Amino acid sequence: MTGSRKGLGALACGIVLVLVLIIPPVAADTMIREDATNRIGEDYTSLGLGTPGYDGTAESCSANCLDQPSCNAATFVAWDQSCWLKEIVPPATAESGMTSFVRQKSSPAVTITTGAGDTMIREDATNRLGEDYTSLGLGTPGYDGTAESCSANCLDQPSCNAATFVAWDQTCWLKEIVPPATAESGMTSFIRQKSSLAVTTTTGAAPTVSGTTPPVSGVPGGIKTPGFECVVAILGCLGVLVVRRSMR
After folding, report:
1. 70-101 per-position pLDDT tens digit
2. Integer Cα distance of 30 and 97 in angstroms
3. Quick count: other Cβ atoms within 10 Å of Cβ 117?
4. Rounded distance, CA 161 to CA 154, Å?
5. CB within 8 A of 52, min separation 6: which ones?
6. Interaxial angle between packed helices 2-22 and 226-247, expressed in degrees from 0 to 180 and rounded to the nearest 10
7. The CATH number of 26-224 is which of 3.50.4.10, 3.40.30.10, 3.20.20.140, 3.50.50.60?
8. End-to-end CA distance of the chain
9. Can you give the pTM of this predicted structure?
10. How far apart are CA 140 and CA 117, in angstroms?
11. Are strands 132-136 and 93-104 parallel, antiparallel or unpaired?
């Protein structure tokens, strides 16, 4: 019986280790950095010099937001070294001395299903260049060549999380991943705002919305690799074997 128990214990440990090794790594969230950009309002708290865990830098501001699941954007103010954390992501405005960050969910870059009540945040005189998956022009069914129609078309497509309308040729560029904002006249950009809490998310692999997105200067949240889980599994197996040995 003792040999049989040892064999079963070893088999169980082997199964645990195999499962740990075949489980794919889970990518973590990142924060996208927007230099010379302010996102005014929607703050739920602020951090200042003396706040535990905050050192008064833009990097610490980003890290504090990333560590709080309810934080989807943050703005760092250089002159007083304060950091403003936001659950809802406000529109971007160009402003020197400000650095903003927007949470980027990890697993598909930004894949969202349309929810009842989604809205589009309008950003006048703002371009979000690149990351287009399609464009609309005069003659495209359902598009009338206006900024409002551009916004409505994006809102109607679950995969669309941002759009930029170009006034001079009346084109509309739809984007699944939300690029960084740059100030540019003649451009109007829109970002999808989820309904319930606009951008309510939990940290981990899942989509993001409303804000900026692809690597412009992302601050990685890290990636979990199987190494730590392997150590835990091995220690667990050793514990089981020690308990079994003491029971003999």
Report:
1. 999 999 999 999 999 999 888 888 889 999 99
2. 22
3. 9
4. 7
5. none
6. 170
7. 3.50.4.10
8. 10
9. 0.43
10. 25
11. unpaired
